[in-house]
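thread from #wetlab-drylab

HS: before we spend reagent money on co-crystallization trials with zinc ion, can we at least see a predicted complex? here's what I'd submit
DV: go for it
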Amino acid sequence: MVGCHCKVCLSADPRDKRLRPSVLLKIGTKRILIDTTPDLRSQALRYGIERLDAILYTHSHADHILGLDDVRPFNFAQREDIPIYSTAETFETIRNTFTYVFDGRPSESSRPKLQSHLFDTQPFCAAGLTIHPIRVAHGKGTAHGFRFGNCAYLTDHSSIPAESLEKLTGLDVLFLDALRHNPHPTHSTVEESLRTVEKLLPKRAFFTHISHDLMHAAVEARLPAHVQMAYDGLEIPIEVSLDVRAGAAAQV
Ligand SMILES: [Zn+2]
Ligand SMILES: [Zn+2]
Ligand SMILES: [Zn+2]
């Protein structure tokens, strides 16, 4: 937190130094990014991200979209448009926020070159990977998590509707929002997320979107062994396979 001198912000543990929440899926040579945070440039430089085959958006809050301009180096290197996948509502906000990207006007400087695809409730295919969108409540708004194979990434949410819980059974890996201990109108707490883990019984769970209320080591010490605090740079192996038969979402 900018300007904060709390013990987490001053912690020497590198796991307490947190950039905005985002995940990169590496499947063979394919790279699928979930959200373009305002820290995308730093994340790409720090973790050596060299290509992007698709970008999935969970929702349109600033901490999940504002790094979109930093996909330009990937456009240069790959010499192609990068497909982005979002709901119509999220795309509307992205288009209104980044008018210069989508207005089609001639420009002297480079702009991100994107191919927009919309998803709703149905599974879609991104870079050959079948993705199941999982609708979640994010305060009064809506966000989406994603399931791919036996893994799911569920950032910002305050609650998970029953029809989405049904799509989250039999997981090997579940990432979920656990902002802090105190209740928050738009986020899940450590305690609420532990209850979700008890309900869904994934083999392993990782908490993300963690605020400076939570010190990594102290909180993790009190979690069950199969539940961990995620941290910047964390890499975990997952088992998924690419499916070339799945249909692409409608292009807009
Ligand atoms: Zn702090
Ligand atoms: Zn949000
Ligand atoms: Zn967020």
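DV: The CA atoms of residues 129 and 242 lie 5 Å apart.
HS: ok that's useful, forwarding to the group
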